[in-house]
Structures are given as C-alpha cells and as structure tokens.
Amino acid sequence: MASLAAGEFSGVFKRMKVATGFYALAALLGLFGLGFLVLAGFIAASRQWGVIEASLGFGIAFMVMAIIVLVGLKVWSRIQARRARRRRVADAGVLAGTAALTLLPSVLARTGRLGAVALPVLAVLGYAIYRENSGQDPDDR
Question: Given pLDDT bands bounded at 50, 70 and 90, which one contains residue 46?
Fold first, then answer.
C-alpha cells in the first residue's frame, strides 16, 4: 500500500515538474514576444518622430511606469502592515479574554465575597472584548 502511495506521489511530482517547465517556457516566449512588440513600437515611433525623440519617449515612459509600480508597492505594503497590526491587536484582545475566562474559576474560588463582585465585572469586560473583536458596533445597526 505504501509503495502505491509513493509511486503515485512520484508520478504527481513528475507531472508537476513537466508542467512547471512548460509554463516557464511559455513565460519566456511571452517575454520575447513582448520585447519584439516594444521594439516594433519603437521602430514605428522612430520613423515618425526620429530616433532620439523615440528613445527619449520610450525611456521616460518606462521610467514613469517603474515609478508607478514602486508607488503602488509602497501603498500595498502599508495596507498590509496596517492589516497585520489590526490582526495583532485583535489577537491580543482574544488572548486577554481567554486568559480572563481561564482564570475566572480560580479567582472566584479564592475570593469568597469578592467573587460576587468580580463576576459581573468580568462579564462586562468579556462582553467589551467580544464587541471589540467581533467587528460590529451596536451603533452601526
């Protein structure tokens, strides 16, 4: 049975390698095609405006595109960092709530009369943590 699974895994791995090779070849051929299209555009532009003007135009256009990509990457990374920060805050709230609920029986057992006061306070605290982490504000409804 194990040899069957190992043989099937080997076959899947081999097919993945072949498919990856063909995808890489297709990507390389696509890049060559794109390069020739850019070259054809450059030749057409150089016939109409001249070689120097076409070179300057293409150079400036590619530099502007590079700057746009870099600015987009910067914006995207800031958004990702903000989302990660929000996730960490939410996870910290969940951990605090879990810790409070885990410690609740021992706090109630040791405090005696104080436990009667601590229970409602912990319930309100737990509800506040739940409301903060659920993402819904009762005022938004």
Answer: very high
